[in-house]
Amino acid sequence: MSIPGFPEIQFPSDMKLAVQQLQESARGTDDSVRQCAAIDMGTRASWGDFYIGLLDFTKAHADPTALDMVGDLVQRANSYQLQLFAWQKKIGASCALTLPPLPPAPPKQQSPGSAAADAIVSVFKWATIAGATIGGAYVVGKAISLIPPPARRA
Amino acid sequence: MRAPYAAGTAGHAQSLQVIAAKIREGSASQRISEWAGTVLRDAGLHGRTHAPIIRQQVQALLDAFRGQTVYAPDPVNKESIQSAEVTLCLTPNLCIPKGDCDDGVVAVGSATANLGITTMVIKEDFPNGEQSHVLLACRDEDGEWFTVDPSTLLSVGTSQSPKGTKRTWVNPMENAGAEIIGIGRPFTEGVEIISIDTPMDASVGVGADPQTPPTIPGTWSNVPDNVVHAGLRYAVAVTSPNDWTAKDVAKLFSPDWLVENVIDRPDLTTIRAWVMIGLARHDATLVDGAVGINAVLQEQPPPAAQPVPPPPPNTTSQPQQPPPLTGVPVGTVLYWMLGIAAVGGLGYGVYEYKKKHGRHLFAGEPKRRRLAR
Known about the structure:
Structural class of chain A: mainly alpha
Strand content of chain A: under 5%
Structural class of chain B: alpha+beta
Number of strands of chain A: 1
Order of helices and strands of chain A: EHHHH
Mean pLDDT of chain B: 77
Largest sheet of chain A: none
Radius of gyration of chain B: 33 Å
Largest sheet of chain B: 5 strands, antiparallel
Distance between the termini of chain A: 66 Å
CATH architecture of the domain at 9-174 in chain B: Roll
Oligomer: heterodimer
CATH class of the domain at 9-174 in chain B: Alpha Beta
Low-confidence stretches of chain B: 1-10, 175-189, 194-210
Number of helices of chain B: 9
Number of strands of chain B: 17
């Protein structure tokens, strides 16, 4: 749960898990494509192109650091996720899929206690960010104020 | 003794399919069974001593075939492949005891397969690029392959392929996974280049290298012109300088390939050979460069009749859409924090500086000093 008006912050561990799931799911889909006699070579080639792009993406972001987590990384991961799901539906229409199951999703109905705890964690994250930013600004400001003025000429 | 094959790659592939189909047909024929049994009985090969006998059996079948038939090429501009029963005159009122290498391979291969001897069809493309030939390979009790060439007078286990000949092995009995090659080693389907390592027949029986060639699961077909297409999976057999590692091979291919695996070829002892498996990023024609390209196999869809293997444990057959990631990446937040801290800190610093020193941080010397000069 996030605070209204404040977006969720995605940490490297979140991204790593998402990339791992994406990669496993893509590999499972590729195995299904390879074992499927009903898929023609043109579709195989299209799948292969997509699979190459996806694996390049997952390899490039397999172990992200905080400083790598910039820009539209999350959107790109989501885009691959959606495209992969579309491929799985397409392939599943003519062949059996063998995919790794997703980890169980968190329950939608949260208890009031856990929702409050999540909100507190979120508030704490944003408060930490705000504190670190203000603290950083304070340190920079103090450092600047310590610069000695130019010496006056006699 | 070697006849030109049908013109064109497609013609070759088609002929191989026909040869394989006719061997399958002959291997189940009762007339072929009777013929083979009679030949072995007449040769005194009763097979009751449990001593190795396969080579003698195949030699006896080969001799009998040669005694009953003559070699004759196909009519001009016509590729015909006749059944074993027709060549061996086992069908009433239909006897054509002549044929080219295809017909000989079908006749002898039908008989060896009928006897339960593991039999492969080998298509040879000679280095001059103009001629092809087809012969057989059988496997003895020790698991060693030996050639059988019905078009020649050579004994089993000897062949006279020129150096640089490309051999394509086809299992006539099944559409199975491919192995890229070991000369004189067991496998079911693949491609090899003669004389890149120990010649096949020299390694048979004595001092054979115990290493076996790598096996690649799946269904693969030879790509004779080395043309690869984007998005498809290939197995590329290469030879590299001796000091290369699998990493070097992967690095060489990486810009143009999604390299999935590089398999060492320890079965080839005198050269450094590898099989790179991967997906092509672009359409291309593979040519020799830093590594030599020995063979290119393309992954094919499995045969439609092939039973679907049971799904591995911990898998599902229903696609599930994972919940999308939402929010901002922490790196973006950090960079924003840095920016805000820098700008805010600068503003605060300017304010503090003025308070402390009574002048603006970026102000020059006081005007009155400049006037005093």
